């Protein structure tokens, strides 16, 4: 009821689209996460088309999705990747997706995983390896005899995290394991066609064959060890045995980010729970969440967690009272097999209740910490931790009060909830003590592979998949009661705070306006490396002191009804105010102060990035964003580009881009530029108070160099060359038209 009360306007909009648009279907809320629904039900692997003459053509399944983890479908051999919403909309309207022909990197697997090592441990190892290798914009293809030992669920876990290791796709071959998975998930009828087609095409997996690749690397699966990743990037793998020492090593840096001289390394706070006092300090685990499509799609991972919970409960263990726990599977099938195996009651005994079927803590929807814990974090200036089975742990994403965030397998999430701290070596120290005071170690309650295999074989059934997806488009009674407006054109409610008519097309002219060079631009933000789309456009809670919050309160919306940025993506007035508003973003113009702040030049006045952009607009001043490497890492969040445009930014200059965000910038008519190799904001001496001209835009061509003239505040000036990262002829047409939607609409009007 609460979900529908909060999101009714959004659901009405989707219901309208369901009836007004052809070839458009909606999977209603509470049915699961899109990627798991695609993996378990929608994907056919091989598709057919019959023409007017009756001739039938068989061809490979493929997919693009408006979420970067669309790559999960690569686990069943389907080519699919994430694109921005802008690009997806254009594709729906008939536009092709253009890209530079990618390099294909072969990743050879050999050996087998050791007992006690999970698919999560494997994917975090691969993520670290491939980030170090550098595969942005490349295809990764897994091959070798080790692949044969991985289930489709394991493969899907690895493919899911392709955006974390930077690849466009991370694809597995089609083999007997694929066929077994199609049979398990109720797609028996498609099996003969899939097997016949891929064998005939020479695409059936041969473990001994080594294809030709642009580059290659390998991994011995038996070398993989239990691990986590953190405290703030998925590629920062930490061995389980090293978590304690690594956290202590990172603590001074995490503490210094508070910019509070009173914060100390030995701080702790006494907090009462049920009449007893507990000590919360640095490293205390305050959030433990079994969450995300990455790991809840894996029955072995969930059953391992369930058996570990059972063993823990049988030994009299419990979760520490300061830990906020939750479980949000990406598929309703998970709830079915956890109930059928009688493991769900043990997870619930440790407070891991199913809170819903969808993206929860992983995307930042953890909700507030336990009230007394949140107050203790503020009082003690504590660096506390979360442990989640998610795919991203970027700064400020999981919870704004939690500075150390670790990705882990579902079973390790349960273990850390019991331990209550990252200041523990779970391979050597007791996890907890039983009611008799005896030490209980992680190895004492970790289930054997044979126990897990037996449970999965018995309790994960085809019937569960068939039942869960029998009415996947029908939804529950709440969905069926949603009353949607009728008509071919949506009637926007001007009073709505969720769905507003966007302004992107208001200035659309029959023909494109001429391009202009950028003159007298100011720097709105000067950032470092690994600025994610979460930094640029957060999806989580709306801070009460943010420009977005002030706008909502001015409209009469109370803080308890703010919802999240993700829920308000249909309102551009909120989203532009949320752009660069992540509470952990560090604008170098502000000398390391956290939050979406900047200085308005030439006055040097400190204000929010949104307020500064409004002031610059009144002066007619174009704006530029400057950053380091891996700009736009993370979610395929088109609002990171839309919000950038709406702030008045004409160009972004970085050392390198993540693929989807670069494409999104072009799709919104923002020029992506790149420093030449070996050059950066640091080498050129940028401080953020410069005035910049960029010439050559009027005659720009894909991949050419443009000249920028930079005037520094000390009176000196210099010229630098920048690489235009408009990569293809199609992208250039989009840019000339002011964005991809402008181009598409003009083409439709012509025809």
Structure description:
- The chain has 751 residues and is of the alpha/beta class.
- The protein folds into three domains: 32-223, Aconitase, domain 3; 229-447, 2-Layer Sandwich (Aconitase, domain 3), CATH 3.30.499; 518-537 and 598-750, Aconitase, domain 4 (Alpha-Beta Barrel), CATH 3.20.19.10.
- Helices cover 33% and strands 18% of the residues.
- It has 28 helices and 27 strands.
- The protein has a seven-stranded mixed β-barrel with strand order 19-22-23-24-27-26-25.
- It is globular, with a radius of gyration of 26 Å.
- The model has no long low-confidence stretch (mean pLDDT 95).
Jot down its keywords.
751 residues; alpha/beta; Aconitase, domain 3; Aconitase, domain 4; 3 domains; 28 helices
